[in-house]
Design a protein that fits this description.
Nucleoside Triphosphate Pyrophosphohydrolase; 2 domains; 40% helix; binds iron/sulfur cluster
Length: 351
Amino acid sequence: MQEGFSDRLLDWYDKNKRTLPWRDRQDPYYTWISEIMLQQTRVETVKPYFLRFISELPDVDHLAACPEEKLLKLWEGLGYYSRARNLKKAAVQMQERHASAIPQEREELLKLSGIGEYTAGAILSIAFQKPVPAVDGNVLRVWARLTGYEDDITLPQAKTLAQKMAGEWISPSRPGDFNQALMELGALVCLPKDQVRCADCPVQKDCFAYLENRAAFLPVRKTRKARKTENRTVFVIRDGDFCAIRKRPGRGLLAGLYELPNEPGHYSQEETQEYVRRLQLEPLRITPLPEARHIFTHIEWRLRGYLVRVAARENAKQEGLIFVNGVSEEDTFAIPSAFSAFAGYMKEEIR
Ligand code: SF4
C-alpha cells in the first residue's frame, strides 16, 4: 500500500461519515449491540431498532435480566433471532465472568456467545482503540479490489489474508476510525459490481482494481447453489378479535418463535376448509389473501394465505394452538417477519 493511504482514507472519512446513533458516544455496549444488529441488516433498518433497544435495555445488566418474550419483541422484524438470544446469553456471561463489563481482550470476547472475529475486532478498535482489524463483507470487497485478489472471496483463506493485511494497514493512532472508514468506503463508494463509484474514491491511486480497470469484476465469487423453494399456506384463523397462533419447535428455522398456523404446500379453499375442520373449528367464511414470499438464506417460502373466520374457538383441538387478541395482545407475541405479509390480518377489522 502506498505511503499516506491511511491518511487519505481517514481524511475522507472525517468529511463523509454518516451520523449514526451508535456513533454518538464511545461506549462498548453501543458498539456491541449495533454491530450485532448490523449483521445481515441494512443501516437504515437498524437505526430505529437500535434506539428502542438502547432505551429499553441501556446496559449489560438490563439485557441479562430481560425476559425472552420482551427481547424477541424488541427484535421483531430484524430477523435472524439467534442474534438476539446470543446477546442475552453473552450479557449473562459478562455478568458472571467480567462484573457486567464488556471485556477488552480478544480471547475473552471470542468466548462470549455470538461474538466472532469481526465483532471482537469492531469492539476492540472502535470502543477500546486497539489496533485490531475488523473485516466484514464490505471491507472484504474493498480489500479484494485494492489488492487485486482474483481468487474466490467466499473461501476462508480470503478472509484470513484480508485480516492479516488490514491489520498491517491499520492506523495505530485511530484504529477504530480506520476500520469504520474502510466499512464506510464499502458502504458508500466501493459498492458491489457496476454500482462502484471510483470517481469519488479517495484511494484510487492505491487501488489495483481501479488502475487495471477491474473494479466491476472484483471480487470473484463462486456461483452459489440455487436456493430451495418451498410452497406453504398460512392460515389467519379469526374468531372476532382473536387470532390463532402457535409456537414453533425449539430447534431449526425460526426456533421457539410464535407463528401463524401454516402447512407445506399450496392449499385450495376446499383443502383449507378441511384443514380448519380438522382443528375442530367450523369455518364461517374463507377469504384468499394476496400471495407473498419470504427469502431466508437457504430457502425461499412461496406463501399462499387465507383469512378464515370461525366461531367457538374454545373447541379448537390442536396441541399448541392458542388464540390471542390481535389488537390488545399485539405487543406480547413476536411474529417473525416471514409472516409479515399476513400479520396485518390478525387485527384487521372483519365483518
Ligand atoms: Fe473501490 Fe474504486 Fe476506490 Fe478501488 S478506486 S477502492 S474499486 S471505489
